[in-house]
Amino acid sequence: MSGTETLHALAGLLGIETRHSDALGVTHEPSAETLNSLIAAFGLPPDPQQAAAALAEARPFGLDPLQAVAAENPVLRPRVADGTEIEWHCDFEAGGHVEGRGTASNGELHLLGPMPLGYHRLELRGAGVDVAVGLAAAPPACYLPAALHEGSHCWGLTAQLYGLNSARNWGMGDFADLAELCRAAAGAGAMTVGINPLHALFASEPRHASPYSPSSRAMLDYLYIDPSAVPGFAEDEAIRALAPEAALAVVRTAALIDHAAVAALKRPVLEALYRRFREHDLRVGAESAAGKAFRAFQQASGRPLAAFATFEALHENLNRAGDGFSWHDWPVRLRDPNSGAVARFGKAHKQRVEFFEFLQWQADAQLGAAADAGRAVGLSLGLYRDLAVGVNPLGAEAWADQGLVVPGMGIGAPPDPLSRMGQDWGLAPVNPLALRRAGFQQFIAALRANMRHAGVLRIDHVMSLQRLYWVPRGQTAVNGAYVTYPFVELLRLVALESHRQSCAVIGEDLGTVPPGFRETMQAANLLSYRVVAFERRWGGGFIPPWDYPPVAAASAATHDLPTLKGFWLGRDIAWRQRLALYPSAEAEAAEINDRKRDRWQLLEALSGEGLIAHERFGEFLPSEDQPVYSPALGDAILAFLARSRARLMLVQLEDVAGEEEQANLPGTNDAHPNWRRRLSTRLETLLAGPNLKRVAALVNEGRQRAA
Known about the structure:
Oligomer: single chain
């Protein structure tokens, strides 16, 4: 076997694709250097036979610690000879059991079905087989509430929570603002409010702002806490004095969100509130009802909460070495979360660890209160939360589960229309082999944490269930390769958790989508994420509303795309020109010309729906190089989208407010103020003003028309 053949054999064994096409139609074959880097990251022997043996040893009888099966027809694929008789016994999660005997045939062993949904315990014995595994019995499709059943046409508002600009918040949007938005959205006829990921970032390094590059996906960002709603604030004048009105006025009027300044205001107040809580509610032998609720939260959250809070305390304690100092730079004894040194640190800093647990308790309580506020007035789908595709390799989740994270690798995307040089998101990929060995527990925990207090969950870059684009550290994003994941098992676990949490699921399927992927999603009731700019006919024109798929969420844009106004005026193109993000003059000219064509084709699509007459085109395109935007154009686009067959239609609050700038410009970091923009209009004014009423009226009419 030649060197290339050996390399490709190893790659195939590990699910590394040796050929892929990007969203621009260009075919790539990863170099030997790239393949060698990816193979080495798995930590297996370089010989294909030795690697295969190591893989087999890691999966006794070819079974994972948790087997995800179809509840209606549970089938296992044990690594035994055909004709092998196996006795099995399954204890159900909710009590009761079933047992039987089967014969392996064509690599399969059929169990008795249907089984109740849930996580069960299965024992197998016979012909050398003696193993016990978990059994996740999953439904064929995700949960869909009545509002998303066939024939339904509802809508929701989406917002970047941090960007809500209220007169009372402390420099960035918080959970109290979210409650106000939920109440107003319900009053306007919306059924859900969608928000950016709420994942925990880095408490001691508030320079981290991207909600899609979290320290932990299972914990919440404490900066969304409204300190004035924490018990004790209203009663304690000394604590209130820690945040003087003059200091609050500075962060409330800043041009951009200053996360460090917000943290500097909130942290002293929250620390004082924790101390007060300890004194009043956590006295040994005399815990108050609130104190008992906190202890119950700690117990229910278990080791993950304790590990996260310990990381926060360690990070705070050791981060004084300076900017960029990470857990990889800590003393060796503290890099291992299970070491005796870490346990001793936790005991020595018990109250500090408990403070970070207190923050999670308060964040969870306030998020729950915001969700309840909306549902109480008719927001039937509740909150629509967002789950990031990965975690920051320097954060708590990567520290606590080091065996799951692949060292020396990032994840991203090959070249596409949003970033023609490809993207490296700076996130750590999960090792699919380690994910199996760990019984998919990290994945399940992330789903549960983000379905909490929600009626809808959006999974960012949902193609990651099937494959992820890995980029070796130090390489450009073009020099990456796709690595496959256990798609069938992960999809079944999504469906199972969706039913257990009564939470619908949206899969963000933009970018390079594998063949057949969307069809599988539709069959599993994962709503496809359809953005008007990408919904085109073969010739390039925009598809009409009735051609949108029903099992979908239709939106005018996303956080990575320009707002309606920004799109029309080419604000995103201007930013890319200013920051020299185009790989060539030809690519720049192509996008400028494409945008000119897009404007005209969009007007044609709106005209086809009777929303803008041909004779009015000149109002918006007086010349090719000087487009003019007006609220009437934005209204027409939203009305167009409201008529779609998609069961859920989404309206960005930025478009209601007429914003020109987008939340994030892909391919940039500090050069663009990503994740730091706030709405230019006060939330109170926006919710009570004419814009929301006007947009809600036209969207409600369009949704009724679609029905």
